[in-house]
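Table S2 (continued). Query chain:
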Amino acid sequence: MKTLMGLSLAGVALLPLSVWAASTEYQDIERGRYISVLGDCAACHTADDSQPFSGGVALETPFGTLLAPNITPDPDTGLGHWRYEDFKAAMTEGIGKGGYHLYPAMPYPSYTLMPEKDIHDLWSYLQTVTPVENDVEANQLPFPFSIRQVMMGWNWLNFDEKTFEPDPEQSDEINRGAYLVESLGHCGTCHTPRNFMGGEGGDKFAGATIEGWYAPNITPNAHVGIGGWSEDELVEYLQTGGNRFDFASGPMADEVHHSSQHWTDDDLYAVARYLLSGAGLESDDWDREPPEPLSEDNAQVRAGSHIYFDRCSGCHTSDGGGEYGIFPQLASNPVVNGDNTSSLIRVVLAGSRPVATDAKPTAPAMPSFAWNLNDEEIASVLTFVRNSWGNAAAAVSPGDVADMREALAGE
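Corresponding output:
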């Protein structure tokens, strides 16, 4: 059967090869745009929303400050002179153009799991963004950390270059969630404890401190992790910025704003099912019994109860139930039970306005109590909350409150 290019064959339109090529290229670019969202590239590389990916965001590390570089196609200050091979090496090996070593604030230890197709499509998309001339001196670290060659030793001890391999014993959905969590979403970068060199160490997803906030435990432990959350509640948090337990603040607010609120439902549920399944975790990473709550006769608990009913119950209610969508419940709340209290102390001292999202554009707010509660009072009210209504956790130290007050004064 003879046909002419552009006519139909058995009811299927035959378009010129150039049109098919253009369509395929567009699909790759659009797919790359979504990969940039999954990878949360904008949170680090966009300081000014009117100039996407032009860099300049300050990344605070235990070793000093780094500035995220310009990754637009600008030839002088961005990636304009990079080849795809240079980009791939940066993503999978932590090696920039010319052979210099990247710091793991750029999460190449997670991105190294990306397959070739995802890296290629991300690169294709980045070539289409508007070039911006913005010269960023990324390395702001003090000596000796400013010497990039030290990363050779760091990589030898902390970096494993490999591609993501699906677990044949898990469903396609769980494997998709694993890829998103372990690689593109790089959740462990914030939620897994770090060793003294800044590499991931300790129990996976057990929580870690980042930029003065505590990225909480995201294992299936019901007391301190997300094991008491339903799949819908976890998706709600990632998509809207909050659920009945918590609202996204600090670095997590940036992640929700730039990234997870724009994910597809399928990808959000894949992540939820992977995290709640405990797949990829050792049982002792999260399967531990909760402690007994402190007695009502404890001095801090008694003092804190009076402060709570005077200052906090109006919003969070007398039984810690909160008001859905406005004030999170404190009862049986894993964030409240967490081993690290820095975020709790920070929010009471400084207040907080969580992220506003497309789904919930009016974000609730928590006022600051630094002006009318002293260190002992804040420690007492938090100790009361952490040992009431199904919660059980160690007492909060006034010294920890004082340290956070001093840290906030320096910001």
